[in-house]
Each structure stands twice: as C-alpha cells, then as structure tokens.
Design goal:
By secondary structure, the protein is an alpha+beta fold. The protein has 2 domains: 130 residues, Sandwich (Immunoglobulin-like); 34 residues. The protein is built from 2 helices and 14 strands, in the order αββββββββββββββα. It is elongated and about 120 Å long. The protein starts with a helix and ends with a helix.
Length: 207
C-alpha cells in the first residue's frame, strides 16, 4: 500500500467516524419526563412531575427546561420553567418548583403539587417536558417528550348543580357498607321477633 492509498484509507475512516458521531448527536433524545404516580388518590397523594436530561454528554449547554400540560381548548399551559436567568416562580398555592441547569449531568426541573391543593378536575391532564440548548457540534437543540397523562382518582357527587370532588377512600366505603348491612339485619330481626311474639300472644288469647 503506497502513501496515497494509506492517506485515502485514513480519510475514509475519519469520514465514517464523523458520520457516526453526527448521527449520534442528531438522533439523541436529551430530555425525559418522569411521573412516579400516573394515578393520584385525591386528597391522599402529592402530584409530582420531573424533567431531566438524557445523554447530557452530547450537549454543550442547556438554555431552558419547561414543564407543560395540555389545555381543554387544545393549547398548552406552562407549569414550571428553568432558564439561564433563573426559575419561573409559581403563584399557585401548594406548589413547589425545584431544579437547576448546572451541572449538565444533574440538570432537572421538578414540580410538586401538595395533596391538599390538587384540583381533581383541572389537574387531570397530560404533561410533557421541553428543552432548548446546543449540542457539541454547535447545532441548536429543541426537543420535547411524549405527553404523559395523570389521572386524579376521585368519587364525584352530582347531587349539586356542579359536581364536587371528595376523597377517594375504600375503607370508608367498606365501613359504610357494613353499617348499612348491620342496620338492615337488625331491623329484620326486630320484625321477625315482633311477629313471633304476636303469634304466641294470639295463640294463647284465642283459647
């Protein structure tokens, strides 16, 4: 193999290597969504959603991470955000937002809505994460995760003009059922006893 052929081989291998690296950067999914509980027991459990980075080694920087959720009219609602200028505060009571963009290996955004402040209708939505930044080839990166539904498990009463939500508690349902059955059995026993007493009284007074 002469020098020209050797240089051509080296150049071909270099191009192949750079192509593989480029495809790795292009195909990399850098943002992920984590929902510990997709069904929240209303009044019993907090609602928590976390946006975190995947394959952070392919990134040069992250400019922002956002947590969104869908709206009933088809749009999107911003729930929490991190950017180079800081964290977007939440004006909703019972909401805690935590996270940081630095260092990249631990960059994340987490939202927690305390159990006593969850709205059983409004918080039953689909949630997703987005990120904006730059990879190590200086290409802009704008990605989002799939939408993850979170369901609020409640029992609703339609006896009022508007449905109201109350805590879901299977133990209360069981106790109520036992009480109703006990009362029914007691009433039946009283009726049977009264019938027997009346039959005995009538037997002895008919002679």
């Amino acid at each position: 193999m002469d020098r020209a052929q050797f240089m051509l081989l080296v150049l071909s291998l270099l191009v192949l290597f750079l192509s593989v690296v480029f495809l790795e950067f292009v195909d990399a999914q850098n943002i992920a969504i984590d929902v510990p509980r997709r069904t929240i027991i209303y009044g019993k459990e907090d609602l928590t959603v976390t946006c975190s980075l995947l394959q952070y080694n392919t990134l040069l920087k992250v400019d922002s991470i956002q947590l969104l959720r869908n709206k009933t009219d088809g749009g999107e609602e911003l729930m929490a955000a991190l950017s180079a200028t800081g964290q977007t505060p939440s004006h909703r009571p019972g909401t805690r937002i935590r996270g940081s963009l630095h260092p990249l290996w631990s960059a994340k955004l987490s939202l927690t809505i305390a159990k006593d402040f969850i709205d059983c209708r409004d918080d039953d939505r689909e949630y997703m994460c987005t990120m904006a930044g730059m990879d190590q080839l200086f290409n802009p990166v704008n990605q989002r995760t799939e939408a993850v539904p979170i369901h609020i498990a409640v029992k609703c009463s339609s006896t009022r003009a508007k449905d109201t939500c109350s805590s879901y508690n299977s133990d209360n349902h069981t106790q109520n059922d036992v009480i109703i059955i006990g009362i029914t059995v007691a009433i039946v026993i009283v009726i049977i006893g009264a019938g027997v007493n009346f039959a005995v009284w009538r037997k002895y007074h008919s002679k």
